[in-house]
Queue: 2 jobs
Job 1
Amino acid sequence: MWGYYAVRRPDKFRILNKLEFVSTSQDDSLIKAMEFIVAHRTSRKEWIPINPGNDKPILKDISWIPGRWLKPTTGQTKKKKGVPEEINRRHFEVCVFE
C-alpha cells in the first residue's frame, strides 16, 4: 500500500496543514494521531518512538487503530493495555490517512 500512498503523500500533508480538524466527540485520539504524523513527516526512521522526549507530540491512544492495521503499525498481534514504545512510521501514516 505504501507505493500507492507515497505518490500522494505530499498532497495529504498539504490538506492536513490547510484544514483544521475537530472531533465531534470528546475522543480526540485521531486528531492527536494526525498531529503526531505531521510532526514526524520529515523523519526517515522506519520505527519512531511514541514518546520522543522532545517538543514533538506524544501518541497516547491507539485504540482507534483497526485490527488489520495493528500488526503492521505496532508489531503487536493483539491490542494490549497502553501504547507500544514505538510505531512503524510508514504504516501508521497510511492507517491515519485511510
Note: The chain has a mean pLDDT of 87.
Job 2
Amino acid sequence: MTGNLLGASGAGVIGDLVGWRGVFFVTGAIDLVALTVAIPGFRSIDEKPGRFDLSTLIPNYRAIFSNPMAKYCFGAVFIEAIFLFGVFPYMAVLLEEAGEPRASIAGVVISGFGIGGVIYTFMVAWLLAYIGERRLMATGGMVMGFCLIVVALRLPWPAEFVNFMLLGFGFYLLHGCIQVYVTELAPAARGSAAAAHSFFFFLGQAIGPVVYGIGLNGVGVTPVLLVGAVALTATGWICALRLRRHIPATQPRPR
C-alpha cells in the first residue's frame, strides 16, 4: 500500500519535471537497483526449493473449482479490477478536462487510494469484530459504486483526493474478505488458489483500461462510470450473499 501511495504521487511529479518518458526511465532504474540488491540477498538463503510436480496441476484446480464459492471469488476480483482499476489511467485526462493539467496533482489524487488502504489496515480488526464479513463486503461494493459516481461529477481535485481515499478504503473492505475465502477454497491447494486469484485480478486490470477506453469514446464519461458503479455495487452484494464459511454443526453460527 505504501508503494501504491509513493508510486502514484512520485510518477506524477516526475512526469511534470521531465515528461512521461522520464517515469519509465526512473522506474526502470529503481527496478535495476532492486534486482542488484535482491540477487546477493537471495543467495544467502539456504532453503532448498520444492520440487515442481506437474501431475498436481489438474487435481489442484479441479479441487478449487469444485468449490461453488470459487466462481464468486474469482469473478468478483475480475470485475473489481475491470471497473475500478480501469479508470485509473484516465484520471489525469479527466482532471485536465476539469481544469487541472498537472500530472503531479493526478498522482496525488490516485495516491489517496493507497491512503484509504492504510486506514483500512488500522480499522479492519475493529470492523470485523463489530460489523462482520457480510456487511463489510456489501458496504465495500456500495462505497466503490458511490465513489465512481463522484468521479463522474468532475469535482475539483481536493474533493477527488478525498474521494479516492474513500475508494481505497471501500476496495479493501471487499477485496480483503475475498482474499480470505480464496485461501479456504481448497486447503490442500492454497498456492494454486492464490495463483488463480492473481490471474483473474491482473487479467481484469489489463482489460479494464480497454473497456473504459471504448466506453469513454463510445458513450461518454458519465454512462460508463455509472455502469461501473452498478457492477461494483452488485459484486459486493453478491459476495455478501454467496460467500459463506464452513462451520461444523457442533459450533454455534455467528450472527
Note: The CA atoms of residues 10 and 107 lie 7 Å apart.
